[in-house]
Amino acid sequence: MTLGLATGSTPKGVYAELIKDHQENGTSYEKITTINLDEYIGLPPTDPNSYRHFMNSELFDHLDIQLENTHLPNGAAEDMSRECERYGQLIKDLVDIDLQLLGIGRNGHIGFNEPGTDFNSRTHVVHLAESTRKANARFFSSIEDVPAHALTMGIASILDSREIILLASGSAKAEAIRQLVNGEPDEQFPASALKLHPNVTIIADEEALSLVSQD
Ligand code: F6R
């Protein structure tokens, strides 16, 4: 089975529950393959702010998963276009993701697919929106330290997943969730691509759902 995973604050609770379940019930990840959405360019896997480091410390180090079966784009690769090709091919070789976990950016990004991303996109280099760098600056010593570029799985690959679960919590995500639930597919709002997928579940708290209209 292949799990598509996300980083950021949102999935931390899920990862804590997976670890608890592994420890208490012995659920095994020995045969699980994972593939992550994105990685900052310029941060080696050992950098505490790299998404590889996040995944190892928040999840993989606490499971019986085989690290060689866990995949993230390499933000320290020498040739980014070859790295995009490699990662795109890897996703194809895994023959689709069984379950993709997503968070959502305040501007509607999924992975690091910022507003305006082609819905047909595969793995590519993105210039991070200023608002995204600001939102993620909380993990760095200053906003200048937040990388300006990242590698991300494209929207087409996300849509190839068999099932998608999008998580959102807090009022900062309320406007994005309103647009996602009440709006139409629109490349200016990347998460709206999920409307084109037959099996998406949104799990959100009351604050994140506070602007969704019932009609
Ligand atoms: C991270 C990712 C991003 C985050 C989004 C929300 O791998 O794909 O799309 O899900 O930026 O981040 P948090 O959860 O920190 O609010």
In short:
This protein is of the alpha/beta class and 215 residues long. The chain has helices at 12-25, 51-58, 80-93, 130-136, 155-159, 174-182, and strands at residues 2-5, 33-36, 38-40, 70-71, 99-102, 124-127, 149-152, 163-168, 200-204.
Q: Given the structure, what is the number of helices?
A: 6
Q: Helix and strand string, N-terminal first?
A: EHEEHEHEEHEHEHE
Question: Uncertain spans, ≥5 residues at pLDDT below 50?
Answer: none
End-to-end gap: 38 Å
Using the CA coordinates, give the radius of gyration.
16 Å
* Sheet of most strands: 6 strands, parallel
Residues in helices, as a percent range: 25-40%
How many structural domains does the protein architecture include? 1
Task: Set down the secondary structure blueprint.
Blueprint lengths: L1 E4 L6 H14 L7 E4 L1 E3 L10 H8 L11 E2 L8 H14 L5 E4 L21 E4 L2 H7 L12 E4 L2 H5 L3 E6 L5 H9 L17 E5 L11
Parallel strand pairs: 1-2, 1-5, 2-4, 5-8, 8-9
Antiparallel strand pairs: 3-7, 6-7
Bound molecules: fructose -6-phosphate (F6R).
Fructose -6-phosphate binds next to loops.
Describe it for me?
With 215 residues, the protein is of the alpha/beta class. The protein has a single domain, classed as Rossmann fold. 27% of the residues lie in helices and 17% in strands. It is built from six helices and nine strands; from the N terminus they run E-H-E-E-H-E-H-E-E-H-E-H-E-H-E. The protein has helices at 12-25, 51-58, 80-93, 130-136, 155-159, 174-182, and strands at residues 2-5, 33-36, 38-40, 70-71, 99-102, 124-127, 149-152, 163-168, 200-204. A six-stranded parallel β-sheet has the order 4-2-1-5-8-9, with no helix packed on it. It has a three-stranded antiparallel β-sheet with strand order 3-7-6, with helices on one face. Helix 6 (174-182) links the parallel strand 8 and strand 9 (200-204). The longest helix has 14 residues, at 12-25. The chain is globular and about 45 Å long. The model has no long low-confidence stretch (mean pLDDT 96).
